[in-house]
Amino acid sequence: MSLFFAMSLLFGLTFGQTASLCAPSEYTIHVEKRECAYCLVINTTICAGFCMTRDSNGKKLLLKSALSQNVCTYKEMLYQTALIPGCPHHTIPYYSYPVALSCKCGKCNTDYSDCVHEKVRTNYCTKPQK
């Protein structure tokens, strides 16, 4: 193994996490409730981007901890609540959503993240916006 290759590998393993492109990104959510008359458009931030992952063809030879599948996930977040207009009195007119303050590459936490590919959803309003 050449010295250049060894140094490149060491540099990549050391600084790969900090050089990832995982960061808060602007995102628009369209929120509707069947009972409410209007659609609410919310601008927020989510964690998005590329994280270094390691996967080996020799999975049987390595420890599980050596095979990391990191995702871009929340480091710090807060929840905000918005009022959906045009809801009848018997309906709860509030919608809470996460706001990413900072992000990190790490294991996916199913307590607050969807860790699998979702079905294709439409992200638009079918009701008038307010």
Helix percentage range: 10-25%
Strand order of the largest sheet: 1-2
Task: State the CATH superfamily name of the domain at 18-107.
Answer: Cystine-knot cytokines
Low-confidence stretches: none
Using the coordinates shown, work out and report the CATH topology of the domain at 18-107: Cystine Knot Cytokines, subunit B
Q: How many strand units?
A: 4
CATH architecture title of the domain at 18-107: Ribbon
Task: Specify the CATH class of the domain at 18-107.
Answer: Mainly Beta
**End-to-end gap:** 63 Å
> If you compute it from the alpha carbons, what radius of gyration comes out, rounded to the nearest whole angstrom?
21 Å
* Major sheet: 2 strands, antiparallel
SSE-based structural type? mainly beta
Query: How large is the count of helical segments?
Result: 1
Mean of the pLDDT scores?
78
Elements, N to C (H/E): HEEEE
Strand content: 25-35%
**Inertia-based shape:** elongated
